[in-house]
Design a protein that fits this description.
about 450 residues, alpha+beta, Beta Polymerase, domain 2, Poly(a)-polymerase, middle domain, 4 domains, 5-stranded mixed sheet, 16 helices
């Protein structure tokens, strides 16, 4: 039985009859246009088809099912041609996007519509591309979700408000399909939160009872239409435990803030300066043009690049307190909070152990002359190894970050290509810009989702 709070939330997030009618009307017109061209079977999939979309969601997915004997290259070519034809007949602006293969994104009567070619396969075991599973997901949920639709809406709003909704690379959270499966598996919103409060890494949920392999992810929800797939593979350990924390917090002290958090506080330029001064650390940022690829391609490369630059900073004596990355439509940022921005000129360089005779001899030969590479001291022996003290190449972090050495570390391919054209180094408050201010604010004032809510409830009670 739902609480009055949850009924109040549902009254705000259920789609209105007018909204349902509008979306259904657009969907019917799309299917009619696609069927009239008669080159592939049209099918509406996703939360709209399953009736599990939240008020205000403006996404609609039309899948174009081609016969499986069509070669992959022809699927892409004919699928794109058909999708463009449909968009043009609907008089809709559109552009090409790319996931596993190309598809068309169009704007139709206020809706964000994806026109996606795929194969009409007999079972999810016979898929030829990842999107081929989606029709099976739609059928599975449609047949079962009816009495639990409101519970799915509550869970989606709960995860969106908590910042853990979305299986994209940047979020690493819960997809809509995962939310539906969790509700089905546990029998409702309250039951799911009670179970999630005790989740541990390696938690296994197998709705179909047919898992065919082991999985290494922290949360495992076996796809009931594909026993070799973990639906929650995108969920990182941090997102999993942010959800666990939220579930515990809601059970202990239910509040509308778990569904409708207050607007995010964004630091102004002056507030950022005060925050940096109070912490006594330093901000440094690299910005560059966003590579012309979808987030699923760019974000993993941003994270790899962030790790590589962090390692470069540490190797050069600059201690990293925290680091993160952000991808916007036109610019990307690698952001670092540093303990120090300058280092002494001298650097200890540790050589091989003396019991490795040949390598030790080569090391000693290289550094034995006092003037070698501006040698300050050594070689001397410490814990059985040769040590020398040599000059650093960089003693200021902005010099390092602005140097070509950045391009020599393990950057992602497309990140390196973008930075090879140009990148900018920003220090302190110069990192701030209107576009990146929300990201920088979250970065500096790090709190888990529950702690943000508790801070708000504490303020409200004062």
């Amino acid at each position: 039985m739902r609480s009055p709070l949850e009924e109040s939330v549902l009254s705000r997030i259920r789609p209105s009859p007018e909204e349902k009618e509008h979306i259904r009307g657009v969907a019917d017109r799309l299917i009619s246009v696609a069927a009239g061209i008669d080159r592939a079977g049209p099918l509406i999939v996703g939360s709209v088809a399953r009736g599990t979309f939240i008020r205000g969601d403006r996404d609609l997915d039309l899948f174009l099912l081609f016969e499986p004997d069509l070669p992959r290259e022809e699927l892409e070519r004919e699928g794109l041609a058909l999708a463009r034809n449909i968009a043009e007949r609907m008089h809709a602006p559109y552009h090409e996007k790319y996931a596993e293969h190309p598809y068309i994104n169009a704007k139709i009567d206020g809706l964000d519509v994806d026109l996606v070619p795929c194969y009409r396969v007999e079972s999810a075991a016979a898929i030829r591309s990842a999107v081929d599973r989606t029709p099976f997901h739609t059928r599975y949920i449609e047949e079962r979700i009816g009495p639990l639709t409101d519970d799915v809406l509550l869970l989606k709003q709960f995860t969106k408000a908590g910042g853990v909704y979305g299986s994209d690379q940047m979020t690493e959270g819960f997809s809509g399909y995962l939310c539906e499966l969790l509700i089905l598996s546990c029998g409702g919103f309250s039951a799911l939160l009670a179970a999630a409060a005790d989740w541990k890494p390696g938690t296994l949920i197998d709705p179909g009872g047919h898992r065919t392999k082991d999985f290494s992810e922290p949360l495992v929800v076996v796809d009931p239409v594909d026993p070799g797939r973990n639906v929650s593979a995108s969920v990182s350990l941090d997102r999993m435990y942010e959800f666990v924390e939220l579930a515990r917090g809601y059970q202990e002290n239910p509040s509308e803030l778990f569904f409708f958090p207050p607007p995010e506080e964004v630091l102004s330029h002056a507030e950022l300066e005060a925050a940096i001064r109070a912490k006594g650390t330093s901000l440094m940022a690299l910005t560059f043009a966003t590579p012309p690829f979808i987030a699923e391609v760019v974000v993993p490369q941003l994270r790899r690049s962030l790790d590589s630059v962090c390692a470069l900073l540490e190797r050069n004596g600059f201690l990293v307190n925290a680091a993160d990355c952000e991808m916007l439509e036109d610019r990307c940022m690698l952001l670092f909070e540093l303990v120090n921005t300058e280092t002494p000129k001298v650097r200890r360089h540790i050589g091989p152990p003396l019991w490795n005779r040949s390598n030790a001899n080569r090391f000693a030969e290289k550094y034995r002359c006092c003037g070698a590479e501006g040698l300050f001291a050594g070689p001397f022996i410490e814990n059985g190894r040769y040590i020398v003290e040599i000059p650093r190449k960089f003693t200021r972090v902005d010099d390092l970050l602005g140097s070509a050495d950045i391009l020599e570390v393990g950057l992602g391919k497309h990140v390196r290509q973008s930075m090879s054209g140009h990148w900018e180094v920003h220090a302190g408050v110069a990192c701030w810009s209107p576009a990146f201010a929300p990201f920088i604010s979250r970065f500096l004032e790090r709190k888990s989702p529950l702690m943000r809510i508790l801070c708000r409830t504490g303020e409200a009670g004062e």
